[in-house]
Amino acid sequence: MSMNSGGRPGARKYRVWDPLVRITHWGVALGVLLNAALTDPEGTLHEQVGYVVLGLVVLRLLWCIVGPRMARFAAFPPSPAAALAHVRDMLGGDRAVHLSHNPLGALMAYNLWLTLLVLSITGIMMGTVAFFGVEWVEEVHEAAYGWLMVSVALHVGGVLFDQWRTGVPLVRAMIDGRKAVARDRPVK
Amino acid sequence: MNATAGKLLRPGGPDERRAAVLAWMVVIQALCALFFIGDVVFDLYAGDGQAPGHLWLEGFVALVLVFGLGVLIVELRQLLARMERVTASLMAARGEMAEVIEAFFSDWGLTPAERDVALMILKGFDNESIAGIRGRAVGTIRAQSAAIYGKAGVDGRTQLLSLFMEELLAEPE
């Protein structure tokens, strides 16, 4: 008996990303884009955007503790073992779809948050009297920036790959908060 | 077939809009709190001889901001939890409704074709649309619905529907 619950034929919709998750995600994305490509690294706008990004990341991390089930650390614990198992499952043709981050995506989320924290903290340090002009701080800031660019590329690539593999429009899920999962795929 | 399904939880419903407004408030107020507290800390370090009363006032305002942020976060959290509960019970109700319908159909001894037609009647399709969807003549569908009404012991579409409504609205024994 087919009780279709709306959306594309043959797809079940799951509400996965709450509005706070989506706003902080796109806010951070916008901030990174601004500071990587548009603002003058020596200017105050660069600093202010950096503070906003730091605030958004801290808020998102707080939400990982007090937020709803899907947004919490518990829904996507950082586990290299789980990530390896996920890779094996993919190679073995497993068709299941993860409702929160898949284990590989979870590692990427932690990586992005850590990198952004390192970038913000070294960025703030460069503006203080005590660390102004200290070389290693600038080097860490530069290195973190390079790593962030690599990570963003991997993140976008990973999203597109998973979208292709599972048929779940992930970018859309980060916009309207819902994952549309084909009926014949089990969810985890 | 989706015209009637999922109205309660469609995107852009009142709960969803409220959650979005709350989330924006949380984000903006968090940034304001960050800015304001940063300013207070900066003043504290700069220590350029401001009256102590001024600092107390700023500290108080910062506290209120953070408290308000906490209240908003709790509010958003509760709203999202409620939305999750409604979704869960609606899913459960749908599952059980499907079982109830299945039980009635088996009880009446409907053929597979009659089951499909009966389900579409319940979903509110008229004979012409059912004929279109199933690729049969309208006459065939008319005959099948007559058979369904006969087996169910009702004299038409409305009575068939009311059988299920009655089951849903009956007082628990």
TrEMBL record, chain A:
Residues spanning the signal sequence: none
GO BP term, pick one: respiratory electron transport chain
Domain Cytochrome b561 bacterial/Ni-hydrogenase intervals: 16-177
Transmembrane helix in keyword set: yes
Keywords of the record: Cell membrane, Membrane, Transmembrane, Transmembrane helix
Membrane topology: Multi-pass membrane protein
Principal location: membrane
Residues annotated as transmembrane: 20-37, 49-66, 110-132, 144-164
One GO cellular component, as annotated: plasma membrane
GO MF, any single term: electron transfer activity
InterPro entries for the chain: Cyt_b561_bac/Ni-Hgenase, Di-haem_cyt_TM, Hydrogenase_cytochrome
Any matching Pfam family: Ni_hydr_CYTB
Cell location: Cell membrane
Keyword RNA-binding recorded: no
Protein name as it appears in the record: Cytochrome b
Organism: Ruegeria marina
Automatic annotation (TrEMBL), chain B:
GO biological process: regulation of DNA-templated transcription
Transmembrane segments: 21-42, 54-74
Keyword Membrane (UniProt): yes
Domain named HTH luxR-type: residues: 107-164
Gene3D superfamilies: Winged helix-like DNA-binding domain superfamily/Winged helix DNA-binding domain (1.10.10.10)
Gene Ontology molecular-function annotations: DNA binding
Keyword annotations from UniProtKB, A to Z: Membrane, Transmembrane, Transmembrane helix
Protein name: Transcriptional regulator, LuxR family
